[in-house]
């Protein structure tokens, strides 16, 4: 039997959509799906995760067979589990605390009970497909307990874990009533990866204060096992975004976008609906700009895409209402018969249209309050094949550690964001080219394929280190 890699994440890289009673598979455009496509589509590798909607018991076999053809293995969640494990513990406890928005957190015991149960459910599916010599790569905060659960059954198995969202400072993390269980759950991995050194530092600090583990540099010794914690800043499929620029469909979109936007400069923002993304604050900065710089009326537009997400969670619904209201106010206050200050869309778009937007936008405004990495900023950079354009980037996004040539802002400082927009609008093409070409070089070199390779190579190195320690 050839050894395989098992990728595990809360969601599978394809969505199941129901149309007239039929289940259809729709490929996900996410960066992770593209990058890991090179892994799970190879040989007998597989990807285990939730297909994204509730599938009734009597149709689970049909869905399992459809997915099996793509090397995908489903974990089916009941409505209660979706409510308590996914919306509850994952998105109303871990998400707000890890993004420093603790007032949004609800520390409910039923959420925790369900989180443990569903991590156990994932463990059952993983172990049912696990053979000796296989490598398991677990992704993200929804599955913090999974490594330990698997290791309890298979003590020598190889497990990598990567967290796609920030790891908060100890003072935040300690607020969670189940902090010790979470840390111990993560210790089940051999290699723990985060986007930035700050995340690594925060994790090591929490681990040293909460657990009985011994920590030396980035090596943790726990229950006679050694595991390593390291930063792996995630990249994108830069080549794909560069090539898209030359796609005829994209070129057509660019032409019609330019017609729609007349001679306005375009400021682009694209986010999932989330309070961590700073969408309201960004709108306030734009409103301040229109207020204090009337000379820009008619000359620029904010093109704002908000992708629907988690809209069954109360805080997300509320945010959606606030955004709708603020956009309405700005447009009502500043618009003219021929000019709309904010073009706002609450929907997702195909990648060809996004590519056209990246090509058209004079400025890309990425100002999250907190973000693990933020791949939109990298997609914008990769799409600027003529090296023009200005990226305004929050210092709270992991990407700001790599893309130093962006205009870096504190998203809480509305005046600073406004001034950065003005600076971007007035930046000379020469300066744009200098900054953008440096950033493009970085995004192209440290792409998603190198990210996968670096993580997998390190995991292998850690296993060798463990083995050599055992034979000493
Ligand atoms: O990167 C963070 C993350 O939560 C991923 O785990 C997830 O796939 C993505 O954002 C979208 O979130 P959700 O799966 O809750 O729609």
Automatic annotation (TrEMBL):
Lineage top rank: taxon: Bacteria
Molecular function GO labels: alpha,alpha-trehalose-phosphate synthase (UDP-forming) activity; trehalose-phosphatase activity
GO BP annotations listed: trehalose biosynthetic process
One of the record's GO cellular component terms: cytosol
Family: In the C-terminal section; belongs to the trehalose phosphatase family.
Protein name from the UniProt record: Trehalose-6-phosphate synthase
Native species: Pedobacter lusitanus
Part of the full-length chain shown: 1 to 472 of 731
